[in-house]
Amino acid sequence: MRGRLGRARFMRVTHSALTLPPRMTALPELDELERAIEAGGTHLQVEVRCRVPSEHGELPVYAVALGNPDSRVPAVGYFGGVHGLERIGARVVIAWLHSIVGRLRWDAALRQQLEHLRLVFMPLVNPGGMLRGTRANPAGVDLMRNAPVDAQDPVPPLVGGQRISPGLPWFRGRIGAAMEPESAALCAIVERELHGREFAIALDCHSGFGMRDRLWFPFAHRRTPIGHIAQMHALHEIFERTLAHHPYVFEPQSRQYLTHGDLWDHLYLRAPAGMVFLPLTLEMGSWLWVRKNPRQLFSRGGIFNPGIAHREQRVLRRHLPLLDFVMRAAAGHGLWLPRGDACEQHRQRAQALWYAFAR
């Protein structure tokens, strides 16, 4: 049986006396998220967007928000745990939520910033998959292949998304089936909290089997640029100037491979006309951890996560400045977002930087 926050489908924290009973479950990330929710008290609005059946009872998929809900202010969404094997993505987002909640006690500048900004967190989108130690959700569906978007160019076999069987990886779901509850919950939060504003950024935290940390942006289903490529290039420009010694490769996902069913392609395409919506995906390069401890190769979880406590702490320290940058970039978007002739200049530089390879 989950705690009090898990008993209502939609629930808002309304008083500081709310407490959760101390306990340890089979899913430490869920425990840690609920501790952050309790610590946030009346600063947070909390919903259970759906419930996922498991052998340990139903698992809640939480959405947490704070700051100004007015649609006239910018917003940032932080997402994690979409793939159950990639626990570190959820932990990064939960650590950032803990940091925000802790600073609210004393950080007057943050409180002032939140009067003009909305923050949204879904740190554990796929708790069932995480509990089972699988990339997919308990139904065998890869949530990042689950959106109704088909690639316009050839995709790599299987990894690009397949409809053969949930017994194989990267299963998209059956043709014509509704989106999975977890995917639908993420989309509903984005459409309610991020869409419809002048400006919003989303950051979805994953880990991938690579040597570099990468920041990807749409499209994943085609090689041509998104409509807001000038704005994305401007974001990249201030990112380079602000975090000069960062470890990231900032690029379109299509530069690596194409896929069917990408959630962020779907949500970008559904964003209302007139707004600037910039989705980013952090792909932490897990080979950075595996090469220091090759024994992790013999564990599914070890391939995608640091594995050792001090390395995980190092990963959290490494990426929290990125999450802070995204928040500040959204709050100050009026100072760097290109307009008029500057848009065309950024578009041309983006084309030269990212799309000279495009066929």
Automatic annotation (TrEMBL):
It comes from Ramlibacter albus. This is Zinc carboxypeptidase. It holds the Pfam family Peptidase_M14. InterPro entries: Peptidase_M14. Signal peptide: none annotated. Residues 60-247 form the Peptidase M14 domain. Keywords: Carboxypeptidase, Hydrolase, Protease. GO terms for biological process: proteolysis. GO terms for molecular function: metallocarboxypeptidase activity; zinc ion binding.
